[in-house]
Design goal:
120 residues, mainly alpha, two-stranded antiparallel sheet, single chain
Length: 120
């Protein structure tokens, strides 16, 4: 491989980096939700079925819209607790911590795929 070939591969990799970031965020969001669902309290199933993600190449937004009540929603009460002394489950924090432990592996896999694609 000569220097020009390497330069072309790096250019190709750079052009595909937005796709790498989007794919990384997609997988990261999916893993977060996979960790959050079993840690979400269940009575009717509404909260467990209310996890959503919005993904772009720049970020992933994850939320639970159980009861669709904004900051005072039902999800907020079971995650953070209430002023009446009910202790929250900290589901979101636990899922974030577990996902953060996996992010390096996920990113490495996505970069590896992009590098293989750049060599084609």
């Amino acid at each position: 491989m000569n220097l020009q070939d390497l330069s072309n591969q790096l250019d190709s990799l750079h052009k595909g980096f937005d796709g790498v970031k989007r794919s990384f965020n997609e997988r990261r969001g999916s893993r977060f939700i996979e960790h959050a669902i079993p840690r979400t309290p269940v009575d009717t199933g509404l909260s467990r079925n209310s996890w959503h993600k919005e993904v772009s190449s720049e970020k992933v937004r994850i939320y639970n819209d159980a009861a669709r009540g904004g900051a005072d929603s039902y999800a907020s009460h079971w995650n953070y607790g209430t002023s009446r002394g009910i202790i929250g489950t900290q589901t979101m924090e636990k899922a974030q911590n577990l996902t953060a432990q996996e992010e390096g592996d996920i990113f490495s896999e996505e970069i590896g795929k992009a590098w293989v694609d750049a060599q084609k």
